[in-house]
Known about the structure:
By secondary structure, this protein is mostly helical. Helix content is 74%, strand content 0%. The chain has helices at residues 4-26, 29-45, 47-50, 56-84, 97-107, 111-122, 127-134, 138-159. Mean pLDDT is 79; it is low at 76-85.
Amino acid sequence: MRDPQSFDEFYRGSALRTLRYAVAIVRDRAEAQDAVQEAYTRAWQRWETLASHPYPEAWVRLTVTRLATDRWRRLTGLWAAIARTDRSTGIAAPPSENTVLLVTALRQLPARQRQVLALHYLVDLTVDEIAAEVGIASGTVKSLLSRGRDRLAAQLGDLAPDRPLEVHDA
């Protein structure tokens, strides 16, 4: 029988990191929330098995990535229009100017660079952990991180050359 307390602890301990990762991958907060919700629903349904998995959080992130990819494939051109739609509820504070600059710069990166940057900086995974999760060599992860940082620095330097970048919201 499923131990709901264990799943609850797992969820509370990992949900925010997973959402940050999903927002970076999906590029739309509402879509990211949907993917995260679906991934945790699937994890809960399989919790008896998943609880013994060595990295259940990685399983959830992989599910988020697959859900996002599947959705993108289904919606093709429509997905871009949906991602640009304003879905704010008026409840959350608007993002800071720095957040907008960072998100704009991230959207211009290739998907794989966005993914490794999100795993490294938002989920706090090491290079080796990212390599294992994504299924690529550690050297490739290092290269993607370096190139992604360089591209972000160049883009953010062009966008906001006279002030430091501080991001306070996901």
